[in-house]
Amino acid sequence: MSSCITASFGFDIDFIFRRLKEDNVKRLICLGVKVDAQNWARVEKSFSLVKHYCEAVRIHCSLESISPGSIVREIRSILASELENCESLELFLTGGPRILVIGSLLAAISLPETLSTRINVRVEGEAFEAILKFNTGTLKQYLSLDDISKRIVEATVDPKRVSNIIRETNLPKSTVYRRIERLTASRILEKKDEKVYVAEENLRKLIDIIRG
After folding, report:
1. What angle do CA 135, 90, 85 make, to 5 degrees?
2. Among candidates 210, 197, 76, which has minimal Cα distance to 142?
3. Is residue 148 within 8 Å of residue 156, measured between CB atoms?
């Protein structure tokens, strides 16, 4: 459940309405790219319908105009400001132009770790039923791993004995032992009952998405 949502926004309001009806949302910030007056008028017209609904169900909502030339910087500022009002934030990236979607994701990832770990991304299929959800801080953590660490982490989504990890990754025994010690020290992996596994649920979920 997410009480605070920041959403990429364009002309199609169906995605927003569907999302708002799922949870007890208290705060919605829509991000729109202001290309020119005519384009922005269309965005505002679409948002007026969303605002009317939000007012009826007592959801605070607003529309933020984003300049095409400074998308990441402006959204970084908005996300940081929103996290002053919310313990966590959902970044809903189903609507709006592609440059706004990618810019929003880059903004979330580039925030300091203390903020990025409080942002959860959600993307839905536009013409089919599918949902991707992941934590941006967890994505940063995964991307910071080298190839060997990634292979070991991906092999330990489910608890495994070290011998099975060596067999599955096809890495040298000494390399696997050293790397497991390092990943355990950094709290990415945990050991219990002679088995090794990924410590954080968010990282397990992300790896499941990556592996399909």
Report:
1. 115
2. 210
3. no
Q: Are residues 52 and 68 in the same domain?
A: yes
Q: What is the pLDDT of residues 71-129, one digit of tens each?
A: 999 999 999 999 998 999 999 999 899 999 999 999 999 999 999 999 999 999 877 88
Cβ–Cβ contacts within 10 Å for residue 173, how many? 11
* Total of domains in the chain: 2
The answer on 154 and 94 residing in a single domain is no
Q: Which residues contact 191 (CB under 8 A, 6 or more apart)?
A: 180, 184
Residue appearing with tokens 């990618």: 102
pTM over cut 0.85: yes
Domain range for residue 190?
A: 145-211
CA–CA distance, 175 with 148 (Å, rounded to integer):
9
What are 10's two structure tokens?
């364009």
39: domain CATH number is 3.40.50.11700
